[in-house]
Write a structure and sequence with these properties.
Elements: E1 15-18, H1 32-44, E2 49-52, H2 64-78, E3 84-87, H3 93-106, E4 110-113, H4 123-137, E5 141-145, H5 154-163, E6 167-172, H6 177-186, E7 194-197, H7 204-209, E8 214-215, H8 222-233, H9 237-253, H10 257-263, H11 282-291, H12 293-296
Parallel strand pairs: 1-2, 1-8, 2-3, 3-4, 4-5, 5-6, 6-7, 7-8
Helix pairs in contact: 1-2, 2-3, 3-4, 8-9
Length: about 300
């Protein structure tokens, strides 16, 4: 297992801010003990930060009551070992403020939100939405710009940082994300402390070369992502790229996130509430298991 304490100063936040899955039992109810195990797994793998609940946590399948119940659990389970960023996106401003207030009360280090995802807000409404989150949070706010949901323009992202007190980070996922990350970094906006990528670190090096502060991937391969980031950050670029090349085939064929966490011995059930296009069946598991040993030696976390 690896541990690396992130700086307490959010202006220095960098690295792999991992997204724990939300485990469900076979009845589809939240497995709260399993959630604690996933959080511990991420921290013990060396995550530089924890982000929950967002898309990789199936936040869109959770009730408001479930999200509110999980916020203090995640913060308490991390117990100060790295920064905790709580997802507070809502269908509208009031719900986002409710989640933000709960995150603040629980002691979260930051919050993250995409714009409202049911109806499209106008630009001025987006500004007011994030202003309300900022006022309720009084901690750094990440703006998630997700291409498949409700993306906003670069100009609006810069306005959010310039005009709203606590907006200091952006997670940029709108294609071409690497180019958009570079443009945001090159804007030299002093209120933007960091721009993070997504998409499970698939283009981590393109993001880093263009100035990204890090990435927010799903949980199962946190220990390998952390190794890759740390190697690259320390100047061991060839070694980092070699490990990344070894990981990508498994990322592409290892199946849904929870299938990978079950395989690693973190949780017991791969149950999901999300509607998926393709079932991961026994033949898929056999294919995964065929290539799994090629990377298993690089795992630093063991059950």
């Amino acid at each position: 297992m690896v541990t690396k304490q992130q700086s307490a100063d959010p202006r220095q936040w960098r690295g792999i801010f991992t997204i724990p899955s939300t485990p469900f039992d076979e009845r589809g109810e939240i497995d709260y003990e399993g959630l604690k195990r996933v959080v511990d797994f991420c921290v013990e793998c060396g995550a530089h930060g924890i982000v929950h609940p967002v898309m990789a946590s199936e936040f869109f399948t959770l009730s408001d009551a479930e999200r509110l119940a999980m916020i203090p659990i995640v913060v308490e389970q991390v117990a100060g070992r790295c920064p905790v960023v709580i997802g507070v996106a809502g269908v509208g401003t009031p719900s986002a403020v409710t989640f933000t207030q709960a995150a603040s009360a629980a002691g979260a280090d930051a919050v993250i939100a995409m714009p409202p995802y049911v109806q499209r807000y106008r630009d001025d409404d987006v500004l007011r939405y994030y202003e309300a989150i900022s006022d309720a949070a009084a901690v750094p706010v990440f703006v998630q710009n997700a291409g498949d949901w409700k993306p906003v323009s670069r100009d609006i992202l810069l306005r959010l940082a310039r005009e709203i007190e606590h907006v200091h980070f952006i997670k940029e996922e709108v294609p071409p994300a690497t180019h958009n990350i570079q443009a945001l970094v090159e804007a030299n906006e002093p209120h933007i402390w960091g721009v993070f990528g997504g998409m499970n670190c698939r283009d981590l090096f393109g993001e880093m070369r263009r100035g990204a502060a890090g990435n927010m991937p799903a949980a199962p391969f946190t220990d390998i992502f952390v190794q890759i980031f740390n190697l690259y950050d320390e100047g061991n670029v060839e070694e980092a790229e070699a490990l990344h090349r070894r990981l990508m085939p498994l990322i592409d064929r290892a199946g849904p996130t929870k299938e990978q966490l079950v395989k690693r011995g973190v949780i017991q059930s791969a149950k999901t509430r999300a509607i998926v296009d393709r079932v991961f069946d026994d033949v898929d598991r056999q294919e995964r298991d065929r290539i799994w040993p090629e990377l298993e030696a690089a795992f630093l976390w063991r059950p």
